[in-house]
Design a protein that fits this description.
The complex is a heterodimer.
Chain A (H helix, E strand, L loop, with lengths): L22 H20 L29 H13 L11 H4 L2 H11 L4 E2 L3 H7 E6 L2 E7 L4 H10 L2 E4 L4 E8 H9 L12 H4 L5 E6 L8 E9 L6 E8 L4 H12 L2 E2 L8 H18 L13 E3 L5 E5 L3 E7 L3 H8 L8 H7 L9 H17 L11 H5 L3 H17 L13 E7 L37 H9 L4 H10 L18 E9 L14 E7 L3 H9 L4 E2 L2 H10 L14 H20 L8 H4 L9 H9 L5 E2 L3 H13 L6 H4 L4 H5 L2 H4 L5 E9 L10 E4 L2 H9 L15 H19 L1 H9 L1 H29 L13 E12 L4 E9 H10 L3 E5 L7 E7 L2
Chain B lengths: L1 H19 L11 E5 L11 E3 L6 H14 L3 E6 L3 H14 L4 E18 L7 E16 L11
Parallel strand pairs in B: 2-3
Antiparallel strand pairs in B: 1-4, 3-5, 4-5
Helix pairs in contact in B: 1-3
Classes of the chains: A alpha+beta, B alpha+beta.
Chain lengths: ~850, ~150
């Protein structure tokens, strides 16, 4: 020990230092401290940001908001730090000039359509239409200019065009007997099926309700269009056009019923798969060379089964436009020109004589130009050296079909309405590239006064089209010549411009196979016959834009999704793919989406602007409770929509019979046999809804979700006395919301009490205790209040009673309502319970009441049954 | 004047005849649904008016007045049940113009086509062709010839 006195004992304390220290013991006693120290060394507790810790000579003031001034190795961590602190580093939007560079624009376009599909006319539409995302597509909903009525007028007097390429075409090939037999399981066996005599030769397109296999009548999927191939071999092909809302269900059903298996091996003999790979490769090559093209990687899945059937999904392989209105035919005949195709023998004789000498030079140049293109897109198929039509029209038979089609096309010129063609007729055509026949200015094509014979039946061979051949389709799509090439051509001619387009030789123009399908429009009650009649065109993919522009330049008006619904509403025709029936899956999906949307909108409003539906006696304002309604009426769970045309028309005649007999015009076409049939014999299963139309007698417009009710006897008496009587009024019901209002008042009183001076004294005395108590109480009160509010908010959504929810008995809902230009009145389309229709027939009246969700006023309507 | 009376008589006779015509029963059966096609139109200039039974009579008068003013000539077309209306319209026009209008009347029969859509698988589309009478009245003002004057 040293002399120095150091510690406790020497200073007179009780503690004594040991003589020796055990190192292990000492170390283990300090272990935790050492660990803490090493931890803090390894994970330094940072209080400074990274850029603050840089040495002084490296610091810049802008570093805090511009990450690029940081050294590169620190940039990532710096950015993450900035993100954490809630200040996202702002990146300046690149300049418009930069963004508009073709390459960047294209990148942007490709980025935007990564998770949804664009139609070929997307960019055209996106500039003028409100676009919505639907069914995996980005689709045009309605035009940005105010044109609702203008579009209706276009259908009535002019021509309305819609791009409906979002429909998917499913091709099934196989032995005809097998196909019809299997597909018959998916339709109503009592009516027309896929294999009907009128459809099987491919002269007409059919429309059917597609059911799940053997699912009639309880499991419908939706309406589909279909057309058979024209050839008369034992193995045939059918194209089924499916609306995207029904696509998934339909495909699943078909695959299950046919036992289809997806073919994974792409090296099969089929050319489509090979070609598709080529396309993908091409695209890769193109992007490497930064050539401009929007990505279109269309894969064509192929399914096969043991019965030699094959299913090909031609998704995005075909485009479809819908034109409706009386000027449709004039627009089409103006826009399209048919080539002069002669047999090979003739061509040999007359080669080079026909070519105009003045334009000979130009033609040679053109040919060179086009040749270059051909080399670029060199095709490995048999069409590589020749164009497809040279080979296709070599055969006598095909040439004959061309002649028939040519005559037919020339005949179209003299017709005034598309409805003068045979209904649902299919006409195949091969037309020249429409870009060579564009007018200089947008000019409306008008009807001309040529008198031609009306076409009574679709002529034989008119429907035979090369478009059914996948090789032709692929060739035409691949060899699309961009507009710039054509413009180059125009600029090279002696007098540049569009004026001399007509002098170009036909050989340089592409020939494109297309198909016309007539759509007959409506036929209801002799009322404006064939409203909405028109023509659908089917095009090969890639050619949408030139055809679209050619039609637009003939003053066709463009409509979107809204128009297809409004046409169906005006017609009124519920049997179209655009309208989903309540017993289908597609309806359920759409209805639940709409319900959520509407509820959200409802609660976004301030409470004094919200409609109190309980007061008005509307039990389900955002949703039609079909299953509840049928349970209350018939005490069953499942329901379906009555679609038997025969039954519906007899029902309608029965209801019409009860009308006043003065109005003879209505009775003109009533079949008297129908009226005498006993309904009970006809309809065995009564658990169904009937599609109906309600027409407002006096004032009022039925809107979506408005209820259809049966009038009481007093109502009928009042109405019969005074035909201008507007209708009864619903009494005000007690609102559940009242109690919550009472509670609010109570709590207000309590709060006032708390603020009174006597209370304040108490608080001062025992502040803590009281505060604690008050908090507890508040918590409970709040809890109760929140629970009540959620109950109230949910009560709007969960509906328990429909039939007796208000003063009058509810029999159905309006699904689509508004003002109809056709009727010049408010009309609503909807569904009612079948047994209620029987009651109406018994009472010999067709008067019902409708009430909108936001009013207490019942309006008097007449009921008609749609078929 | 005699000429005009004759014309009126002709029109009245035609009206009666048309009313008396018994309507042919349309062929319908359980296998088919009858759907009518729109009839062919001859031409549609501005002053060609195709009359229907739905539109208000007075509206037609207004339209006719407008075109008589603009292009000095109107052609009224009527088919089947509307013949009566067209005749009335033409005569009324003449009346309110104090007989300064003249009528040029032509009648014709027009081919109509009905489609019979099949209801069952075995049936095919059928066609029902029929004729219906039509009337085309050209309404035009009479040129009142001014009396000759000898300039002096």
């Amino acid at each position: 020990m040293s002399d120095k006195k150091q510690f406790d004992e020497y200073l007179g304390g009780s503690e004594r230092l040991p003589d020796n220290a055990q190192i292990l013991k000492l170390a283990s006693a300090r272990a935790s401290e050492i660990a803490a120290m090493t931890y803090s060394l390894e994970n330094p507790h940072q209080t400074k940001l990274i850029f603050q810790k840089l040495p002084v000579h490296m610091r810049r003031r802008v570093m805090s908001h511009n990450a690029k001034r940081m050294p590169r190795r620190l940039r990532a961590s710096h950015l993450s730090q900035m993100n954490k602190s809630g200040l996202p580093p702002k990146s300046k939007r690149p300049s418009r000039k930069y963004r508009r560079r073709p390459y960047n624009l294209l990148l942007e376009y490709n980025r935007r359509q990564r998770n949804k599909f664009w139609l070929e006319t997307h960019i055209w539409h996106a500039k003028r239409f409100q676009m919505i995302e639907k069914w995996g597509f980005k689709l045009a909903n309605y035009s940005n200019d105010r044109c609702f009525r203008a579009n209706y007028r276009a259908v009535i007097n002019h021509c309305l065009i819609q791009d409906i390429s979002y429909y998917t075409c499913i091709e099934i090939t196989g032995p005809i007997v097998f196909l019809t037999q299997k597909l018959k399981m998916h339709c109503n066996p009592n009516e027309l099926t896929f294999g009907a005599k009128c459809y099987i030769n491919g002269e007409r397109e059919g429309t059917l309700m597609f059911y799940k296999a053997n699912g009639y009548p309880y499991h419908p999927i939706g309406y589909i269009n279909f057309m058979w191939n024209a050839n008369s071999c034992s193995s045939k092909a059918i194209w089924i056009w499916v609306h995207p809302a029904l696509y998934k269900d339909t495909l699943e059903e078909i695959i299950n019923n046919f036992n289809f298996v997806l073919e994974t091996n792409s090296n099969t003999s089929d050319t489509i798969v090979e070609k598709d790979q080529d396309i993908v490769k091409d695209l890769q090559a193109e992007t490497m060379s930064s050539e401009l093209k929007i990505f279109r990687t269309t894969k064509v899945p192929i399914y096969t089964n043991n019965n030699e059937c094959q299913l090909t999904i031609l998704r995005n392989c075909l485009n479809r436009f819908r034109l409706s209105g009386p000027l449709t035919l004039n627009t089409l005949t103006d826009a399209f020109k048919l080539p002069h195709i002669r047999s090979k023998f003739d061509v040999m004789n007359q080669s080079s004589v026909e070519v105009d000498k003045n334009f000979e030079k130009m033609d040679i140049q053109d040919n060179q130009n086009l040749c270059e293109i051909d080399i670029k897109n060199q095709d490995k198929t048999k069409y590589s050296t020749n164009t497809w039509y040279n080979i296709y029209y070599q055969s006598e038979k095909n040439l004959e079909t061309f002649k028939v089609q040519n005559d037919m096309f020339n005949n179209l010129v003299g017709l005034n309405f598309p409805s003068q063609l045979p209904p649902n007729m299919i006409l195949a055509l091969t037309v020249l590239d429409p870009r060579f026949f564009l007018p200089e200015k947008r000019i409306k094509s008008l009807s001309n006064s040529q008198i031609t014979e009306s076409i009574l039946v679709p002529p034989r061979l008119a429907n035979e089209s090369p478009l059914w051949d996948s090789n032709v389709r692929n060739y035409v799509t691949k060899n699309y010549v961009s507009t710039s090439v054509i413009n180059n051509l125009r600029s090279q001619s002696l007098v540049p411009g569009v004026h001399n387009d007509q002098f170009y030789n036909e050989n340089i123009m592409h020939k494109i196979p297309i198909i016309f399908i007539q759509k007959p429009g409506n036929y209801v009650n002799n009322n404006n016959i064939n409203f909405g009649a028109g023509i659908d065109i089917i095009l090969p993919s890639g050619w949408s834009m030139p055809f679209w522009l050619a039609l637009i330049l003939r003053c066709a008006r463009v409509g979107g999704l809204r128009e297809s619904k409004s046409i169906a509403y005006e017609t009124p025709n519920l049997n179209v793919p655009d309208i989903n029936h309540p017993d289908t899956n597609a309806y359920k999906v759409e209805a639940s989406k709409k319900r959520i949307m509407l509820i959200e909108r409802h609660y976004k409003l301030p409470s004094n602007k919200r409609v109190n539906y309980t007061k008005l006696g509307i039990s389900s304002p955002f949703f039609c409770e079909w299953s509840l309604l049928i349970k209350e009426w018939n005490n069953v769970d499942n329901f379906y929509i009555l679609r038997d045309n025969h039954i519906l028309s007899t029902l309608n005649t029965k209801i019409c019979m009860s009308l006043e007999k003065k109005r003879k015009n209505i009775h003109k076409n009533i079949d008297k046999n129908n009226a005498s049939i006993d309904l009970d014999d006809l309809i065995k299963d009564k658990d169904c809804f009937v599609p109906i139309k309600v027409i407002n007698e006096n004032k009022g417009l039925p809107k979506d979700f408005s209820i259809i009710c049966i009038p009481t006897k007093d109502d009928l008496i009042k109405y019969n006395e005074d035909k201008t009587w507007s209708g009864p009024v619903q009494s005000v019901l007690k609102s559940e919301n009242r109690e919550s209002k009472k509670m609010k008042k109570k709590t207000k009183k309590k709060r006032k009490k708390l603020k009174s001076p006597s209370f304040n004294l108490l608080i001062k005395l025992n502040r803590n205790k009281i505060q604690r108590l008050a908090r507890k109480k508040l918590k409970q009160e709040n809890k109760n209040r929140i629970e009540n509010q959620t109950k109230y908010m949910l009560s709007i959504d969960c509906c328990k009673v429909v039939r007796y929810s208000c003063d009058r008995e509810v029999i159905g809902y309006v699904t689509q309502g508004g003002f109809s230009y056709q009727e010049a009145k408010g009309i609503g389309l909807g569904y009612v319970i079948l047994s209620s229709v029987f009651n109406l027939i018994k009472e010999k009246s067709n008067i019902v009441l409708t009430r909108n969700t936001t009013t207490r006023k019942y309006r008097i309507c007449k009921l008609e049954i749609l078929s | 004047m005699e000429n005009q009376k004759k014309k009126e008589k002709l029109i009245n006779n035609f009206k009666k005849k048309n009313l008396n015509q018994s309507k042919k029963k349309l062929i319908t059966s359980n296998d088919h649904i009858l759907k009518k096609r729109k009839p062919l139109r001859f031409h549609k200039k501005k002053n060609d008016i195709y009359v229907n039974n739905k539109t208000n009579f007075k509206v037609y008068l207004k339209i006719c007045e407008k075109y008589l003013h603009d292009s000095k000539e109107v052609t009224l077309h009527g088919l089947g049940a509307t013949i009566n209306r067209v005749c009335n319209l033409a005569l009324y026009l003449k009346k309110i113009h104090c007989d300064t209008l003249d009528l040029d009347i032509k009648t014709s029969s027009i081919n109509l086509v009905d489609d019979l859509e099949p209801n069952k698988d075995d049936a095919d589309y059928k066609i029902n062709q029929r004729l219906n009478s039509a009337i085309h009245i050209r309404v035009f003002p009479i040129e009142l010839v001014k009396p000759l004057r000898i300039d002096n």
